[in-house]
Amino acid sequence: MLIIGAKGFAKEVLEVVIHSNETDNLAFYDDISNDVGNVLFERFPVLKNFEEASNYFKTIDNRFTIGIGNPILRKKMYDTFRNLGGILTSSISTKSNIGNHDVNIGAGSNILAGSTISNSVAIGIGTILYYNSIVTHDCTIGDFVEISPGATVLGSCKISDYCQIGANSTILPNLNIGQNVIIGAGTVVTKNVPDNSLVVGVPGKIIKELTSLNF
Q: Which residues are annotated as a binding site?
């Protein structure tokens, strides 16, 4: 598998892959960090250009997962490496807690240790559930959503694409969170949130309108 990125969140993904015994032919991709050499942790090769990535997909392993946290960058990396011939693949920690009934996890999701997914939950492609985050029953999580450490999404909520749910925040039941929303750390969301909003506080209030996405 190829992990896109070789710093920060990519190291979190590495730990998930190690626990799953998926390290055969594992490599990283980083073409922008001058302080990242050709080998990471004296073990894993780091590819440096699209030609190397395309060759890796053709001759070694066509799977890739995204080791970058930002939802917008994750979408861009998905488009780029899919066009090079890669197949987006999830990394799901053996130390996560996932319900046994009616759970659907989209391709390319990164589910980290200690995260909990209840029954009747749908998670879109390329989404992150960080350490100790919780998604309870009957929730729908969109594509390329980042749910930060300790965040809790309570029953029957819908979170749309490209949202960032801050650390230790709580989204109360039966709420709809629009596309491209940032929920600040520690925020308690008590009402629906429209697209392109920054929400902070207890209770959460919209403090800024964000620029609409244009993909």
A: 69
